[in-house]
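sorry for the late reply, my laptop died twice this morning and i had to redo everyting from scratch. anyway the thing you sent over, i finally got around to it. pasting the sequence first so we're on the same page, its 90 residues, then the predicted structure underneath. double check i copied it right bc i was rushing
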Amino acid sequence: MVIVVGKWKGKLIRVAALIVVVVLFATALPRVAGVFYEKVPVFSGWMQDEHPTGNPMRVEQPQDVPTTEFNDTIDQFVIKLQNFYYKEQE
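ok and here's the structure:
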C-alpha cells in the first residue's frame, strides 16, 4: 500500500521546527527556574521538601500586643464553642 502525501517536504520541515522548539523550551525552563531560585522567593519553595512541625492550629500571642476585652471575649467564645462541639460528638 502506498500513501501519497502532498507537499511532504514542507510538512516535514514544520514538524522538525516544532520538535526543535519543544526541546529548546524543555531545556530552557529548568535553567530559568535555577536562575530565579535565589532571587525570587516564590520559586525557591518549589524545590524544597517542607515538613512543618507542631500544631498548625496553635497560634502564640505576640508579646508586644496588649490583650483587649474584645480578644478575651472572642477567645472565651471559641473555647465554649469547642466544648459544645466535643460534647455533642460524645
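The mean pLDDT is 77.
thats about all i looked at so far, will dig more tmrw
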